[in-house]
Design brief:
- The protein has helices at residues 23-36, 89-103, and strands spanning 5-12, 20-21, 38-48, 51-60, 63-73, 79-87.
- It has 107 residues and is an alpha+beta fold.
- The chain has one domain (2-101): Nuclear Transport Factor 2, Chain: A, CATH 3.10.450.
- β4 (51-60) and β5 (63-73) form a beta hairpin.
- The longest helix has 15 residues, at 89-103.
- 16% of the residues are buried.
Length: 107
């Protein structure tokens, strides 16, 4: 997935307001998500002009969640923007807490 990201990709999180910018920052988020999500699977896909929406299901601990990855592509075919939305709120909160523990710098 990282190879398909534009060097200046923008990642819009379901948890934080300010987007993450740049391939390295987004690669770190994707690595953390791969650790946190259990039973992750894509279940549907919708394609538009320059945009793909991937619907997924996953689990974080005992919380089941549904989500979508919205990928917008640049003229070079690389992912220029990745926006993630997750439901229900209890699943999003479990995801936020698990991600926070992985992404906080060691004290």
């Amino acid at each position: 997935m990282v190879a398909s990201l534009s060097p200046d990709v923008v990642f819009r999180s379901p948890v934080v307001f300010k987007p993450y910018e740049g391939r390295e920052a987004v690669a770190g988020i994707l690595r953390a998500v791969a650790t946190v999500f259990e039973d992750f699977r894509y279940v549907d896909q919708a394609d538009g002009e320059g945009t793909t929406v991937l619907v997924f299901k996953a689990r974080v601990g005992d919380r089941e969640l549904d989500g979508v990855d919205i990928l917008r592509f640049g003229g070079d075919g690389l992912v220029a923007e990745l926006m993630v939305m997750v439901r229900p709120m209890s699943g999003m909160l479990a995801l936020a807490e698990a991600m926070r523990s992985l992404l906080e710098p060691a004290a």
